[in-house]
């Protein structure tokens, strides 16, 4: 499953062959970085950072990153609470328990 995600995500990354290993272009961000900043900025009400992060990657890539972040957060919180991910997701959204 993770191999499929890596292949999918690999399509959103810029080619790295022109840069030395470990080097990074100024302003270059990956979709997970953009998603983390985007979600944190939204939680803090920081419109400027929200717009900045949204400009780092395509809307599709940002959506994928935010979705992946949400999944990981729900799983981590479910483990911490000793509940199912479904129960945690419903609770976070204020929905009645199944």
What would your notes on this structure say?
This protein has helices at residues 2-10, 31-44, 47-56, 59-81, 85-92. With 98 residues, it is mainly alpha-helical. The protein has one domain.
Task: Evaluate the radius of gyration.
Answer: 16 Å
The major pleated sheet works out as: none
Count the DSSP helices. 5
In sequence order, what are the helices and strands, one letter per element?
HHHHH
User: Roughly what fraction of the amino acids lie in strands?
Assistant: under 5%
What general form does the structure show? Answer: elongated
Helical coverage, percent range: 55-70%
Structural class: mainly alpha
> Structurally, how many domains make up the residues?
1
Low-confidence segments, ≥5 residues, pLDDT <50?
A: 14-24
Record field, number of beta strands: 0
Q: Quaternary status of these chains?
A: single chain
Mean pLDDT: 82
N- to C-terminal distance: 28 Å
List keywords for this structure.
98 residues; 5 helices; mainly alpha
Summarize the structure.
With 98 residues, the protein is an all-alpha fold. The chain contains five helices and no strands.
Q: Helices, strands, pairings?
A:
Blueprint: H1 2-10, H2 31-44, H3 47-56, H4 59-81, H5 85-92
């Amino acid at each position: 499953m993770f191999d499929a995600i890596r292949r999918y995500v690999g399509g959103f990354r810029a080619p790295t062959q022109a840069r030395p290993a470990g080097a990074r272009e100024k302003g270059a961000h990956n979709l997970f970085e953009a998603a983390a900043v985007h979600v944190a900025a939204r939680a803090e009400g920081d419109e400027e950072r929200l717009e900045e992060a949204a400009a780092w990657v395509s809307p599709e890539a940002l959506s994928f990153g935010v979705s992946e972040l949400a999944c990981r957060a729900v799983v981590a919180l479910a483990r911490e609470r000793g509940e199912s991910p479904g129960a945690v997701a419903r609770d976070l959204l204020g929905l009645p328990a199944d």
